[in-house]
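Today's session is about reading a structure prediction critically. Students often jump straight to the picture, but the first step is always the sequence itself: look for stretches that repeat, for charged clusters, for runs of hydrophobic residues. Only then move on to the predicted structure, which in these notes is written as discrete structure tokens rather than atom positions. Here is the chain we will use throughout the hour.
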Amino acid sequence: DGLSRHTGGSGERNTKALGLRDAARYRERFFIPATYETQVTGNLEKALATCELFVQTYPREKNAYGILGAYIYPMLDKYDKGVEIAKRFIELDPNFSIGYLQLAFNSQFFGDLAQAEKALQRASDRKIEIVELAAQRYDLAFLKGDQAGMDREAARAEGPGVPNQLVLARPALLLLHGGRL
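Below is the predicted structure for this chain, in token form.
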């Protein structure tokens, strides 16, 4: 999908893309400066203005929702806006995992653990799974003091297939956070 292909990259590539934006398709005329501002300059206010106009102009464009919900709103401590945009993202594409992840972590940081859990359950009900969702489930279990939930996610992380390093690293991060590593 477009979001995962375009969010990575070096500052050099983003700077080059910014210089070529006038020759780009109309949607990319929003996407290029938004990623440039988030990844190169760090000017989140400018990126915010660009992405909000992006959503208004192209209300069905997933990249705009992804940038707002994953980068801009959380970095500006606007988790309520992150929750709102993630809900719209899920309405736009209910089978895309990133919308559920954004809804879960923005809800968590907004202080609504129940809504975060509900988002993760909705993804699970749709049989949507990525490593980041498992890590989010682990984090929520920790925040709720649910050791059984943490153990369940850790066991799944070591299950068949490729181990989920995001989850397997969580116990060490908790020890570090507690000053015990």
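Discussion point for the tutorial: The radius of gyration is 18 Å.
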